[in-house]
Write a structure and sequence with these properties.
The complex is a heterodimer of chains A (242) and B (311).
Chain A lengths: L1 H15 L4 H23 L2 H4 L6 H23 L3 H5 L5 H21 L1 H12 L9 H28 L3 H25 L2 H13 L2 H26 L9
Helix pairs in contact in A: 1-6, 2-7, 4-6, 4-8, 4-9, 6-8, 8-9, 8-11
Chain B lengths: L4 E4 L4 E5 L6 H9 L8 E4 L8 H6 L1 E4 L11 H11 L4 H14 L15 H13 L5 E5 L7 H18 L2 E6 L2 H7 L2 E6 L2 E6 L12 E7 L3 H9 L3 E7 L2 E6 L4 H11 L3 E7 L4 H14 L12 E4 L4
Parallel strand pairs in B: 1-13, 2-6, 2-7, 3-13, 4-5, 5-6
Antiparallel strand pairs in B: 7-8, 9-11, 9-12, 10-11
Classes of the chains: A mainly alpha (242), B alpha/beta (311).
């Protein structure tokens, strides 16, 4: 665990000191304003009560986390720091999981700031309140954000392990994220009508908490095999150093 | 690497010399477990790189082909991160960083991002980073390559000072023979992945180093120099302003050469031995192996290596 903490500290320090940190902060502010101010204004109390609302915290972390993890190995390889890191006593697992966790916590944590901001906006903009989420909904939202971040992070790590450059990794990941976003829509379009209506009914009739947990479960189930694959592929003696 | 058999004494500075592509970096990667060997055995500090590479890495520091510094971070942060990786406490990290940065004269600049530094400064910081966790062994891969002469001297001085203080075993690869001669207690010469020679810098290639003498005086005409080159005891004549430097077959031949010159009306003022450098030895070794091209040039059997008296 202490090795994992060291890798986390290293990654976060590097993220904080990144040349593009101001771009990341600006992007975060835009997304926070969009989810925490604009959407509550647009949707009103539905922002908190609609069963599908937790999905908001899925797509954005998943997309953003890939931009961070694309740099994880490919970036270190480009900056020629990877071999020095691999020449330390850190285990393969600590390096891999530390990099993945650092990106997921960083992005999902930042995005979740929009949740209390949204609750505050809702209560300030609509006088009929108070509008407060249940503990279950809060936990389900956190789970969705981390599961989505985990899936995006796993894809990012897997691609970055062997990518020749950060740019290359980002291009591959952009295609993957778009595929993940459009495949469910295509499946819904092609599925029998009674299946589709069943899914829509589930998404509109349950509570935000229960829908959130189901969604988090699906995302986590998607992330697990990809992480396992990344874990199997990450062996010091086998990953390209240049 | 092929048929490489060598042992590095604990506490020594060991030079691993060879041209580009000789297999120096590959050897370091193999010994650290960063790449897998196809066959052969090695022991580093008593551990097998194939199965116990983590123990080796825990006890080693490295400066590989590139300084590998986290360039967005300051010098202090770089040392702190690698101190944490080396499991030093916060107080130990602070004390060790201060000690190392002061020794290499970079303490005053510890809060500057490393990306703003010159290559020489970064290289010196990378050596300090390699030593932050007080390793028993450090691997330095071409530490002065690409540096200007002044920075190279700084790096060499830092290296000697730091190695002397910490008593660490240093495994140094270089193709700078003068550097190896100055720094190393022992050197190994490799070519195309094969070991040509190993020993103290003044011993390497000794068999191939023929004595050289400097002859100074008057009367070294072109005709005399040509006759000298044809003399059976003379290997090679290098004309000088006031005489010549002559490679001789053996020491007994020197008196015959002097007698020959006197007979040819040369007024000799000085006959002195010319110091033999590591460069002479290595170049001779390379020449001999080139002459034997097609020969195996090294012992048969799988490669073996031992470091820090681990065998």
């Amino acid at each position: 665990m202490s090795d994992l903490r060291v890798v986390l500290a290293k990654e976060w320090l590097e993220l904080r000191k990144s040349d593009s940190m101001w771009v990341a902060v600006a992007t975060l502010i835009v997304f926070l304003a969009m989810i925490g101010i604009f959407l509550p204004w647009l949707l009103g109390p539905l922002w908190l009560r609609a069963p599908w609302v937790t999905m908001i915290w899925a797509w954005i972390p998943m997309f953003l986390v890939t931009t961070v993890t694309a740099d994880s190995f490919a970036g270190e390889r480009e900056r020629r720091t990877l071999e020095t890191l691999l020449a330390t006593r850190l285990s393969d697992g600590a390096i891999l999981w530390g990099k993945w966790l650092a990106a997921v916590v960083w992005v999902a944590g930042a995005m979740l700031l929009s949740f209390p901001l949204g609750v505050l906006s809702l209560n300030l903009m609509f006088a009929q309140g108070p509008y407060l989420p249940s503990i279950g909904q809060v936990l389900a939202t956190v789970a969705v954000a981390f599961a989505a971040g985990g899936l995006g992070g796993a894809l990012g790590i897997l691609v970055s392990l062997r990518a020749a450059s950060v740019r290359h990794a980002q291009q591959v990941l952009a295609i993957m994220v778009f595929t993940i976003a459009f495949v469910p829509l295509t499946v819904l379009r092609l599925a029998p009508r009674d299946w589709t209506s069943g899914i829509f009914s589930a998404l509109t009739s349950g509570s935000p908490a229960s829908t959130g947990w189901i969604f988090a479960g699906i995302l986590a189930a998607g992330a697990a095999p990809i992480l396992a694959m990344a874990h199997m592929r990450f062996r010091r003696g086998r990953i390209p150093l240049k | 690497m092929d048929a490489l058999t060598l042992e590095v004494p604990r506490g020594s500075i060991f030079g691993f010399l060879g041209r580009n592509g000789a297999g120096k970096t590959t050897t370091i990667r193999l010994l650290l477990g960063l790449i897998e060997a196809t066959r052969g055995t090695a022991r580093v500090l008593g551990f097998d790189p194939e199965t116990e590479s983590r123990k080796i890495r825990a006890r080693s520091g490295v400066l590989l082909e590139s300084p590998g510094l986290l360039e967005r971070l300051t010098a202090e942060e770089n040392l702190d991160i690698y101190g944490r990786i080396g499991r030093l406490t916060k107080a130990e990290r602070a004390a060790r960083s201060e000690e190392l940065l002061k020794r290499i004269g970079l303490w005053e600049r510890r809060r500057e991002p490393v990306k703003e530094w010159s290559r020489g400064m970064r290289q010196r910081l990378a050596i300090a980073r390699a030593l932050i966790h007080e390793p028993e062994l450090i691997f330095l891969d071409e530490p002065t390559a690409g540096l200007d002469p002044v920075s190279a001297v700084d790096v060499r001085n830092d290296l000697l000072r730091l190695a002397d203080i910490s008593g660490v075993t240093v495994f140094l690869t270089t193709h700078n023979l003068a550097e190896a001669e100055r720094l190393c207690d022992q050197v190994a010469i490799v070519r195309s992945g094969r070991l040509l020679s190993v020993g103290a810098p003044d011993e390497v290639g000794r068999d191939q180093r023929r004595p050289r003498i400097r002859l100074r005086g008057r009367g070294f005409s072109e005709r005399t120099l040509a006759a000298l080159e044809a003399h059976p005891d003379v290997g090679y004549v290098q004309p000088q302003d006031d005489g010549a430097i002559v490679t001789v077959g053996d020491r007994e031949g020197i008196s015959r050469i002097v007698a020959f010159l006197v007979r040819n009306d040369v007024a000799l003022k000085e006959v002195s031995a010319v110091g033999k450098t590591l460069e002479d030895g290595v170049l001779s070794l390379f020449r001999v192996t080139e002459e034997r091209s097609g020969d195996s040039g090294a012992s048969d059997g799988p490669p073996r290596a031992a470091m820090g008296g681990g065998l």
